Amino acid sequence: MWKPNQPGTTPATPEPQRPAPSVSGGAPSFEPARPTAPTSSPVSAAAGDQATIGKSLIVKGELSGSESLYIDGKVEGAINLPGNRVTIGRNGQVAANISAREIVVLGKVRGNCQAADRIDIRAEGSLTGDVIAARISIEDGAFFKGGIDIRKPGAGDAPKTPENSPEAAG
Q1: What number of other Cβ atoms are within 10 A of residue 81's Cβ?
Q2: Which residues of 17-28 are buried (b: 16+ CB within 10 A; e: fewer)?
Q3: Do 107 and 125 meet the contact criterion of CB atoms below 8 Å apart?
Q4: For the segment 18-32, what is each residue's pLDDT rounded down to a tens digit?
C-alpha cells in the first residue's frame, strides 16, 4: 500500500507553490488580470481611452485632448475635449468651463457646460452654470442653478430661422 507521507515519494498532484510573505511586504498588490469598468455609466466603445484624475490630484490650467476623462480630484481652468465624455466623479470638484460630447456630473461643477450630445446631472451631482446641449437629464436630488439652452445636434450659435435674425426685425 502507498503511503503519501513516506519519504522519497511525491504525490501525483503536488501542492502549488505559494509566494513568500516577505515579498509582498504587507502592501496590497494589484492584479492586472481583473480589469474593472466604471459602474456609474455604460462603457463607451473606446473604453481603454479614458484618463483619470484621482482624488488627491489638483489641476490648475487648461485640459484638452482626444480621449475621455474621469475627474475625481480638483480641476480649475478650462476643459476642452470635443467628441469625448467628461465624467465628474462623486469626489470631483471642478471650477471650469467644460466643452465635450457628453458630460456626466456626479460631483460638483461650477462653470458653464457645453455638450454636443448630452449633459447628465446625477442625484448626487451639483452644477452651477449655464448649460448648452442637445439633451439634458437632471435626476431627482441633483442641484442645478443656471440657464439651459437646448440645441439640436450640429447647431451653432447663429439663429436658425430668418424670423429670429436681427435683419428680419427691420
Answers
A1: 21
A2: eeeeeeeeeeee
A3: yes
A4: 444 444 445 444 444
